[in-house]
Amino acid sequence: MTLKMEGKGKAGTTLYNQDKNDKLISKKVSVVLKQFISLKERKDEKRKIAEKLNDSNVDFLQKLKLLKSSSNCKKDTDQLQNIINLVENMERLEHQLKMEKGYITDLEMKIQKADAQRIVVWKRKSRKVIKDSSSQPDRSG
Known about the structure:
By secondary structure, this protein is mainly α. Helix content is 81%, strand content 0%. It has a domain of 65 residues. The longest helix is centred in the last third of the chain and has 59 residues.
């Protein structure tokens, strides 16, 4: 939904738009407040909304976004619980993944160590073969 504020220079149009905006905000506040079951919850939420709506630094579109997010948060607690469960499952899976990555890293380090030892042994054998062949007299001549 996009609102266009046309004719900002004309006082009558500006007042008309302001009145239209106030009515829309009032309707949104009513929708939000109907979602709260207890009277105390309604009063608390009404107070919070009023504080935010009376803030002069908040423009009209921000106020509408505030009301929309407020109503969406209370609209479906089951959905919120599902999100919490998904996050918990993701955290468990992330922990399991870290453990498996650690295990794989450990195996990779062991493989690198074994490769390094094999290279050292191979170099020693190569030097020994070269040394043994050079120390024997040449009998071909």
